[in-house]
C-alpha cells in the first residue's frame, strides 16, 4: 500500500504539474488579463489582477492541461526541468507580444509603442517564431489586418504581391511573377488550416482576423496543389477562455457601410469555448451605367465566422468552425470594352443587360488535436461550397448593343461547386521542439480531397449579333459540363538542429489526382428546340507530382540568421472545357505546371528594428496559359511555355522613436517567358521574351504611424501610406499596359480606453489606374478616392 501511494504521488507530479509565473510591465507593475500560451499545445492561462498565472503541464513538459487562472496564493514558482524546453507566447492589450523560451516564468512586457511584437506563425504546420523559418514570409498581426477589408488589399501591405479582379469579388493573385487567371490559382489560400481549393470556394472578405501569413515562393511540400507561387494563410480569432467582444461601424462616401461585431467567451469553464463574429457590408456603386443612368455596381453582403472549441481532458481538443458569405452585386463586371474607353470615361459603363449576381459561399470544418509527451497529432475534415449565378442574363459585350449575354441561372445543382478535404498530421512533441543542437523537429501527414464542379452556361446572341461576327442572331449556345476530381497526398518534413547555430531541413511530398469530366453542347434558337452541336463526350485525366524541398540555415549572431532554400511547387492539371476554337478539341488534357525556386536570404532582429531580405530565382515549366474565349465565355487552358522570374524581397519594421512605427516592403521582379507559343483560331503566335501578366516590375509599400499617449486613458494616432507600383501588363502579348503609378492612403484618430474613433481616406491621391484587364481588352479601373470614419469598441466583458 505504501508503494502504491508513492506511485500515485509520482504519477500526479509527472502528469499534472502546475507551473506558476507572473507577467509585469516595464516598471514592474502587474499586467492583468494577459494571455500566456504554450505553443503547440492546448495549455493557456490568463493572468489575474496581480499579474500571476498558473499553467497545467504534463510529463516532461510534453503533456498539456486545461486553461488555468491565477493561483489564489499568489506564489511565483517554476520548475526548470519542465519549462526549459517549452516555448511560451505572451500577449496583452497595449503591450508588445513576446515569445519566451527558458526556465523563467517571470515575464516582463514592454508597451507596444516602445517595442516590436514577437510573431508566432503556423506557416510550417506548427507554431513557431517567424524568425526561425528559412523562407521569405510577411506576417500581418490583428491590428494591421483590421485595416484590410478584402484579400485584394494585401497588395498595399506585402512586397512583390499583386491582387485585383474584374469587380466580381474573385481576385487574381500574383507573388514574384507567379500567377494565373484561371479558377485554379497559382497562389493558394488557407483559412484556419483549410484549403480554399479554387477561386470558386473561398471567402475574400477579411474580418475577425488574428493574423495573415504570406509565404513567398513554392510551398508544395507542406501545402501541395496550387502552392506554385506561395501561400496565404488567414487565421481568424480562436475561441479562448477569455471574455472579450468588439463592435465596429464604418461609414464612408458612396454610402459605404460596414458593420461588424464579435465575441469570445467560455461556455463551460475550462472546457468549452465559443467565438462568433458577423459582418455586413454595403455601398452604392463606384460606377454609373450611362445606359440606365443608375449606379452600376451597387452591392451588399452578409457574412459570419463561428467556432466552438472543447478541451477533452489534458491532451485533446476538438474544434468546429462554420463560415459563410452571402454576396449580392448589382453590376458584377464594371468593365469598358477597351483600356482607352475606360480611361476616357472613368467610372462609367454603358451596358444594356443589367442583373444581380448571387454569390453564396459556405465553409465548415471539424478538427481534433492531440498534444502529448511523445508526439502531436491532428485531423481536420472540411467542406466548402459556392453557388454563383446571375439572376438575369449578364452583359457579355460590355456595350449598349444587344449582341452577347451570358446565362447561368439554370437552377441547382448547376453551378454549385463543392469540396471535401481531409488532412491527418503528426509532428514532434512541443517539448522536443527547439533550437538545441542535436534536436529534431518533424512533421508528416496525409491529405485527400474530393471536388464536384457542375457547370451550365449559355451564351446568347441577340438581334445585334452580327456586330460581333456571328452569322446568325437570336439564339444561344448552351454548354454543360460535369466535373469530378479526387486526390491523395503524403508528405513529410524534418529539421535537424546542428552545432554552432546550423540547421538543415528536408521534405518531400507526393500528390496523385484523378479528374473526370463530361461535356455536352447545344444550339437553342429563341422559342425553338435544342439541337446538339457537341455530342455527349467524357474523358479522364490522372497525374502525379513530387514536391521536394531543402534548406540550410545559420545563426550568425543572436540577432541575425541566414538561409538558402530550394523548393518545388505545382499547379494542378486537368481537362479543357468546350471550346469554339477548332484547334482546341473538347476535353483535351493539360499537364500540371511546375515551379523550381532557389532562394537565399538574411533575417535580422535588432531591438527596435527587424529587417529581412531575400534573393530568388524561379523557373516554371509547362506553363498553363488560360484564355477566356469570347463570345462563348469559356476558359481554355493549354501548356504553352516556360517562365523565368528573378528578383528580391525586402521588408523592414522599425520603431524610429517612442510611438513612431515604420513598415516598409520593397520588391523587384523580372518575370519573362523564354518560351511561349500560343495557337488560337488556327493561327500561331510566338511570344518569347514577353513579360508575365499581373506582375509589377517594382513594388514599394511604405507605412508610417505615430501614436502618442495623452494620459492613462487618452491616446491619438496618425498614419500615412505611400504605395508605388511599377509597370505591368495584362495580356501575354504585352499590348495592354499600365505604367508606374502611386497611391496615397491616410488615417488619424483618437482612443479613449477601449473606444477608438478614426477618420480614413484611401487613394487620397485620386490616382486613376488599370487594376485588371482581360486579354481581349475589357478593362476595370482601380477604386476611386474613398473616405470615411470608423468607430470601434473592443474590450473584456
Describe this structure in words.
The structure is a single chain. With 797 residues, the protein is mostly beta strands. The chain has two domains: 99 residues, Carboxypeptidase-like, regulatory domain (Immunoglobulin-like), CATH 2.60.40; 562 residues, Maltoporin, Chain A (Beta Barrel). 4% of the residues lie in helices and 57% in strands. It has five helices and 51 strands. It has a 22-stranded antiparallel beta barrel. A five-stranded mixed beta sheet has the order 10-15-16-13-14. Strands 3-2-5-6 form a four-stranded antiparallel beta sheet, with no helix packed on it. Strand 49 and strand 50 form a beta hairpin. The longest helix has 14 residues. The chain is globular and about 80 Å long. The N terminus is likely disordered.
Amino acid at each position: 500500500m505504501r508503494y502504491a501511494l508513492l506511485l500515485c504521488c509520482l504519477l500526479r507530479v509527472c502528469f499534472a504539474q502546475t507551473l506558476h509565473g507572473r507577467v509585469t510591465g516595464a516598471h514592474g507593475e502587474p499586467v492583468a488579463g494577459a494571455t500566456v500560451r504554450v505553443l503547440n499545445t492546448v495549455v493557456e492561462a490568463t493572468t489575474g489582477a496581480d499579474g500571476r498565472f498558473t499553467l497545467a503541464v504534463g510529463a516532461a513538459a510534453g503533456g498539456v492541461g486545461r486553461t488555468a487562472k491565477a493561483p489564489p496564493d499568489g506564489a511565483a514558482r517554476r520548475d526548470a526541468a519542465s519549462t526549459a524546453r517549452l516555448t511560451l507566447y505572451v500577449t496583452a492589450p497595449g503591450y508588445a507580444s513576446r515569445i519566451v523560451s527558458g526556465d523563467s516564468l517571470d515575464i516582463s512586457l514592454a508597451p507596444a509603442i516602445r517595442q516590436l511584437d514577437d510573431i508566432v506563425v503556423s506557416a510550417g504546420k506548427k507554431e513557431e517564431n517567424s524568425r526561425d523559418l528559412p523562407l521569405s514570409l510577411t506576417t500581418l498581426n490583428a491590428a494591421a489586418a483590421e485595416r484590410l477589408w478584402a484579400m485584394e488589399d494585401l497588395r498595399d501591405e506585402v512586397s512583390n504581391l499583386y491582387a485585383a479582379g474584374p469587380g466580381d469579388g474573385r481576385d487574381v493573385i500574383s507573388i514574384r511573377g507567379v500567377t494565373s487567371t484561371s479558377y485554379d490559382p497559382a497562389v493558394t489560400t488557407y483559412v484556419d488550416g483549410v484549403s480554399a481549393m479554387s477561386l470558386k470556394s473561398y471567402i475574400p472578405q477579411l474580418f475577425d482576423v488574428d493574423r495573415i501569413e504570406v509565404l513567398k515562393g513554392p510551398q508544395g511540400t507542406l501545402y501541395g496543389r496550387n502552392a506554385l507561387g506561395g501561400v496565404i494563410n488567414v487565421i481568424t480569432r480562436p475561441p479562448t477562455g477569455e471574455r472579450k467582444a468588439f463592435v465596429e461601424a464604418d461609414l464612408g462616401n458612396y454610402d459605404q457601410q460596414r458593420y461588424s461585431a464579435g465575441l469570445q467567451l467560455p461556455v463551460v469553464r475550462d472546457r468549452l469555448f465559443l467565438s462568433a463574429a458577423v459582418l455586413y457590408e454595403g455601398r452604392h456603386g463606384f460606377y454609373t451605367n450611362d445606359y440606365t443612368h443608375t449606379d452600376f455596381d451597387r452591392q451588399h453582403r452578409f457574412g459570419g465566422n463561428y467556432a466552438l472549441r472543447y478541451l477533452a481532458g489534458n491532451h485533446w481538443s476538438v474544434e468546429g468552425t462554420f463560415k459563410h458569405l452571402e454576396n449580392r452585386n448589382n453590376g458584377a463586371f464594371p468593365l469598358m470594352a477597351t483600356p482607352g474607353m475606360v480611361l476616357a470615361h472613368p467610372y462609367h459603363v454603358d451596358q444594356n443587360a443589367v442583373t444581380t449576381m448571387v454569390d453564396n459561399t459556405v465553409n465548415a470544418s471539424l478538427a481534433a488535436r492531440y498534444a502529448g509527451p511523445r508526439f502531436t497529432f491532428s485531423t481536420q475534415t472540411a467542406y466548402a461550397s459556392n453557388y454563383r449565378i446571375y439572376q438575369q442574363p449578364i452583359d457579355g459585350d460590355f456595350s449598349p448593343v444587344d449582341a452577347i449575354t451570358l446565362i447561368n441561372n439554370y437552377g441547382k445543382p448547376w453551378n454549385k461547386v463543392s469540396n471535401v478535404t481531409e488532412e491527418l498530421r503528426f509532428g514532434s512533441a512541443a517539448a522536443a521542439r527547439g533550437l538545441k543542437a542535436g534536436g529534431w523537429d518533424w512533421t508528416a501527414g496525409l491529405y485527400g480531397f474530393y471536388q464536384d464542379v457542375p457547370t451550365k452556361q449559355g451564351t446568347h446572341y441577340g438581334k445585334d449579333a452580327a456586330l460581333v461576327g456571328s452569322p446568325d442572331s437570336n439564339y444561344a449556345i448552351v454548354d454543360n459540363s460535369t466535373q469530378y476530381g479526387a486526390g491523395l497526398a503524403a508528405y513529410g518534413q524534418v529539421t535537424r538542429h546542428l552545432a554552432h547555430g546550423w540547421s538543415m531541413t528536408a521534405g518531400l511530398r507526393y500528390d496523385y489526382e484523378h479528374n473526370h469530366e463530361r461535356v455536352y453542347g447545344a444550339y437553342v434558337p429563341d422559342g425553338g428546340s435544342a439541337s446538339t452541336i457537341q455530342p455527349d463526350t467524357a474523358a479522364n485525366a490522372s497525374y502525379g507530382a513530387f514536391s521536394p524541398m531543402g534548406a540550410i540555415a545559420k545563426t550568425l549572431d543572436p540577432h541575425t540568421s541566414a538561409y538558402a532554400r530550394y523548393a518545388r511547387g505545382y499547379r494542378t492539371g486537368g481537362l479543357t472545357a468546350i471550346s469554339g476554337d477548332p484547334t482546341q478539341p473538347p476535353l483535351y488534357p493539360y499537364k500540371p505546371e511546375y515551379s523550381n525556386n532557389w532562394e537565399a536570404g538574411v533575417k535580422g532582429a535588432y531591438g527596435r528594428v527587424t529587417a529581412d531580405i531575400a534573393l530568388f530565382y524561379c523557373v516554371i515549366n509547362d506553363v498553363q496559359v488560360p484564355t477566356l474565349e469570347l463570345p462563348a465565355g469559356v476558359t481554355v487552358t493549354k501548356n504553352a511555355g516556360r517562365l523565368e522570374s528573378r528578383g528580391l524581397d525586402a521588408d523592414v519594421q522599425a520603431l524610429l522613436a517612442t510611438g513612431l512605427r515604420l513598415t516598409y516592403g520593397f520588391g523587384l521582379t523580372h518575370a519573362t517567358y523564354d518560351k511561349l507559343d500560343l495557337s488560337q483560331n488556327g493561327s500561331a503566335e510566338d511570344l518569347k521574351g514577353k513579360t508575365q501578366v499581373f506582375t509589377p516590375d517594382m513594388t514599394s509599400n511604405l507605412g508610417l504611424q505615430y501614436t502618442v499617449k495623452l494620459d492613462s486613458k487618452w491616446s491619438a494616432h496618425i498614419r500615412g501610406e505611400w504605395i508605388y507600383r511599377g509597370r505591368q501588363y495584362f495580356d501575354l502579348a504585352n499590348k495592354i499596359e499600365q505604367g508606374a503609378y502611386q497611391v496615397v492612403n491616410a488615417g488619424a484618430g483618437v482612443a479613449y480606453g477601449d473606444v477608438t474613433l478614426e477618420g480614413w481616406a484611401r487613394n487620397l491621391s485620386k490616382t486613376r489606374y488599370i487594376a485588371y484587364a482581360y486579354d481581349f481588352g475589357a478593362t476595370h479601373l482601380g477604386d476611386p478616392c474613398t473616405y470615411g470614419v470608423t468607430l470601434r469598441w473592443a474590450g473584456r466583458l
